[in-house]
Amino acid sequence: MTNLQAKIFKAGGIVSALFLLTIPFSTSISIILSGVLLLIWLITFQFKQLPWLLRNNPVALFSLLLFVGLLFGISYSSAPFKDAINMWAKYREFFLLIVLLPFLSSSQHKKWMIYAFIAGMIGTLLISYAMYFDFIPRPRYAATLKSIITQSIMISFFGYYCALQIKNPEHIKNRIFWCLLLIICIHNVHFVAIGRTGQLLGLLFVFLFCFQHLNAKLSIFLISFLAVFFALFINYSEMGFRITEGFQNVLNYDFSNPVTETSMGRRLTFWQYSLTLIKESPWFGYGTGSFETEFKRLADSNQYINKNPHSEYLSLAVQLGIPGLILYLGFLFSQYRMAQQLEIQKKWFAQGLLLSITVTSIFNSPILDHTEGHWFVCLLALCYAQQTIPKNA
Q1: Which domain holds residue 27?
Q2: Full-prediction pTM beyond 0.85?
Q3: CA separation (Å) from 324 to 11, 19, 279, 314?
Q4: Among the listed ranges 114-128, 205-219, 327-341, which one has the minimum average pLDDT value?
């Protein structure tokens, strides 16, 4: 690598941090910066390292296999060619992970990414509360810059990160700061963003944190406190209706007469028809971007139509068949395997990230969706940059 290329490569680390910082705030800027990263990746010939990367980083390998699989899925897709191409382009995060990994090979670049992650989440909270207290106008009914699903997922994970910093011996002097941020995150997820996915994640993060850090007595105390909190939240908070409403929608759903008039009703209808489509074509699916076309074939004309079934597992299975689902499960399992080889603090971070993606993939499409997809991929690159398969593997 020439001196000029080395300087450009270093700039790639800075652009990576700026990219992560801008994801929660601006779709257009983040798209531009992802293009800049790809250009730097090409100029500095990072693609020459691709064979080594794929041999030594299973997360990168499964990510590329999914990206290539979706490209192959265009060739037999039942969707119009333009729609198939657009869907493949929306899954660019699978390739972006490979582009990001080389730029996070140095500890300095990783620090910049951590600072960008923290700054982005604090900035999200500041904007959210500025809307909440009517200092600035709200673009939607909830006080969120992005959707309530997106913000609740990000802030829930950030709350988990704050909890990790409270237990981190390196941050003893800053524990009050992290405690305050954790309280703000809990309030934001339950009373401001009110996204059910984020609320569920928050609950699961408590169990994960207990498993990682606490003995049996402290775990029982924390879980008991959590149970009391949710009982009060559901029964006495005006925001608790989101949880009871979700349960009620599920209980009232009629599988013999699918309806899409409620949020959970839509998901259940999408999932029901997705299973039908997978059963019809289990080995190859219907091709990239095919869900909308095939859903219209099965659904009534008055039903709500969407381009994906709000489940990453089902989305890939409909498009690529069982092989697509297996590749995605391999993508998740490879994260679990590689997380086991990380230093303890990084391991806990990676475990929380894996939990986020795994659970979110049930109810949403965290890789397909722009904000969540780019945000998760940046954090995955932060976790698994320059990691190799263990010698004894």
Answers
A1: 3-249+305-384
A2: yes
A3: 35, 29, 14, 9
A4: 205-219
